[in-house]
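Re: weekly structure request thread

Next one in the queue (404 aa):
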Amino acid sequence: MNTAKKSTVEPYNLISPANGEILRPSGDNLLSDGERLWPYFDGCYYLRLGREALVEEVVSLILRDRREQALTLLLCDRRNTDIPEPDPRDVQELWRSKPSFHQAIELLGYGGLGWYFEHRWIIPTYLSGLSLLHWQIPRHQRVLEIGAGLAHLTAHWEQMGGGDSIGSDVVFSHLWLSQRYLRPGRTSVCFDANGPFPLTTGSVDAVLGHDCLHYLSDLPGAIAEMRRVASSGRLLIGHLHNAEAENFSAGNPLTLDAYKNLLKPSAVYDDAEMTYAWLEQRPPRPLKTTPENPPAAFAFVTGEIPAEPIGILPVPTPDPNSDSTSSLSRLGEMMANPLLGTDPPAWPSEKFVSEYVRPFPYLENLRSPSDGEISRARSGTANSDELRKRLAMGVLVRPPGDWY
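Done, posted below.
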């Protein structure tokens, strides 16, 4: 595998998280801030503070033209040292072969996180993120998504005609998989959102943080950095855990008043309302008063409401260059969600049921569409409203061809 590629960093004006200097190419797979070198592979820039020894070793391997070993080290890096690293031999198999995404997450030893990534299109908290993107940001804006994981939301925004954006996460392998399966040719940046963001001031139009900010140890600092890099001042913050309600993997949540103080002025939503608004394909309704029963999570939006958002989900059109039996939509081939292949649905774990199905009982009523319905969806003869509904719910999905 040829891992040596020229940097595409210039459009985003990435800066060093260590000294704040503009990062400039310094040979293949390396950027320089004038004092130290930083590695990148396949459009993924590793700018994570607190990993100085790892960066030094990776840079040394690159300088000695041992790039495959360098990439393996970055792919083995975890969120923290409490999480066991994958077997380097499995990681080497990942980039030497062409596995499906399902096989890739097994090789990386993702465990339960793997099914979360693999099946995110049906998860209610993902749908609430789609509400943010479709109703709370103007078209063609360039977005930075922090804590993006595999950057499913960033990929969706780009597919919908949003601006060329940036996915970021603290784990390099998440972003590398995103580049390989979801966002080929795009830009991803690995950094810790608890510290300085490695982007110049105003370098993106808006910043999205979804189901991630409650895990940060320095939330005020992260919000200040989000405001700094967003030229429009528009922040989209979804599924932010409520300290006054129970949540799985709660993190470090705050109360509604504490969040409001950090994010004022902003519109506030019950995050579940964002999910149901997406299912019903309508604009979400903000909270007007403090609810009697505290929501499990909130969504916050700062800045002006856009005059021309994307709005409802566009119905894909068939590819005129394909025959009717294998027609591709402009966003990928439509297929039945594999989780719905049995009655009742085959949810991946009891944790999935507890975290998503019980709070959102509509999931239990989802059923796989018939072969005829799938055929009509692919050929462009399905009823537009019904097709939109099935796509919005995740009953029909459009994964990359090598996903499952």
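The chain has a mean pLDDT of 91. The first strand starts at residue 24 and ends at 25.
Next request, please.
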